[in-house]
Amino acid sequence: MKKMLMLVALVLGVSAMAEDATNGTMATIKKETKKVEEKMANVKEDVKKEAEKAGQKLEAAKDKVEEKMGAAKTDVKDDTKKVEEKAADVKVDAKKDAEKVEVKATDVKDKTKEKVEAAKTDVKADTKKVEEKAADVKDDAKKVIKKVETKVEDKVEAVKDKVEEKK
Q1: Taking a C-beta distance cutoff of 8 angstroms, is the pair 58, 148 a contact?
Q2: Residue 91 above 70 pLDDT?
Q3: Which long-range contacts (CB under 8 A, 24 or more apart) does 114-120 make?
Q4: 10, 34, 126, 159: most buried, per Cβ within 10 A?
């Protein structure tokens, strides 16, 4: 009987020791899990902040491009007005010349044609300048957008690297 009691006590003692070891291990696992969850929350915040910064920079670049495009449109409108004014002035000059001088109809016609051709040439030259200016602004806008995209991609890579380092 003593042996039986000792055997039962031994089994109960081993069982209690195993339970204590299990409880200690579970507590350690829970502590580590909390630490990992806290780190993950911090990483998520960092990623969110970096994404917001990148979004703001992208918006700022977009605004700059829109400003440049607006300025280019204004320049084009101004140059167009100048061209129209020149054409109107040429027409007025041609009429005045025709009224002042009583010359044969063919002479007046020839002079008018020459002035219209000169005005056409001026208009073509001014139009070409406007088109070149618009193309330059377009190229500048593309470069700015490309730079911003590169910076955003670099930031995203840096954030990814940070996240991987914190893991």
Answers
A1: yes
A2: yes
A3: 115/90, 116/90, 118/90, 119/86, 119/87, 119/90
A4: 159
Q: Please name which of 118, 127, 144, 145 lies closest in space to residue 75, comparing C-alpha atoms.
A: 127
Does residue 151 register a pLDDT over 80? yes
Range of the domain at 161: 2-166
Q: Which amino acid is at 158?
A: A
> b or e along 142-153 (b: 16 or more beta carbons within 10 Å of the residue's beta carbon)?
eeeeeebeeebe
What's the pTM value of the predicted model, to 2 decimals? 0.33
d(CA 143, CA 136): 11
Angle between helix 2-100 and 105-166 (nearest 10): 170
The count of domains in the chain is: 1
Q: What single-letter amino acid sits at 116? A: V
Structure tokens of 31?
Answer: 């502590």
